[in-house]
Amino acid sequence: MSINMEKTDYPFTLESQPDYGILNVKIPQGKTLKVEASAMAWMDSSLTMKAKMKGGLKRMLSGENLVISEFTAGTVDAEMGIAPGSPGEIGHVYLEDSTIFIQNSAYLASSPDLEVAIEFQGFKGFFSGEKMFMIKCSGTGDLWFNTFGGLIEIEVQSDYVVDTGYILGFTEGLRYEVRPVAGMKSLFFSGEGLVCRFTGEGRVWIQTRLAPAFVHWADPYRRVNKKSKD
After folding, report:
1. Phi/psi-derived region of residue 186, left when phi > 0, alpha when psi is between -120 and 50, beta in every other case
2. Is residue 152 included in any domain, yes or no?
3. Does the residue 230 lie in any domain?
4. Is residue 226 part of a domain?
5. What contacts 113, CB < 8 A, 6 or more positions away?
6. Domain of 115: which CATH number?
7. Least packed by Cβ within 10 Å: which of 39, 143, 147, 181?
8. Can you tell me whether residue 225 is helix, strand or coil?
9. Structural domain includes residue 228
10. Each residue's pLDDT tens digit, 58-107
């Protein structure tokens, strides 16, 4: 079982990295590519598309789209552009009989033989303040995922601590525990939240921006309509 950063079955380029990454990918004739709903930016007219339900009720409860689109090339190779919803970087891995978990807003595209499923993370995910569901990607094939901000890959050899909001994904086999960063007082008074302590050997992917923190930063600049006096 391994993860290959160089191998691919679908020739592709990543453009406008790292701030506004977009994926340009070639789909070989007769092959299909799974793509997150609404992420198609452009495509050759020879491609055919159909939508499939992934995850059913569990994906509905996770707050994400219910549909993954499948794009199939006909008798010739075809190209398409895929754009994530958030500004940031796009990452790629090639799984070889292996599994990784990514946050439920990070999935962008994958090859058809890669199994994409919703994985319940139990109360560990619930108490972290994050959603309880992650996307489990397993098998053999290409996987592309997107971040909010930049992308950092960490090789975990024994243990590593990451703020829960910055975790993009991690490899199967890593154990993790969610806890306050410095005791329960810090949770309420320091402005710091909960962290995830990973143990074991594997990889963790981190995004460099946090959506709630960005919203808090931008809030003073939003336009406020003043009420007119009668």
Report:
1. alpha
2. yes
3. no
4. no
5. 139, 140, 141
6. 3.60.160.10
7. 181
8. coil
9. no
10. 444 444 445 789 999 999 999 999 999 889 999 999 999 999 999 888 99
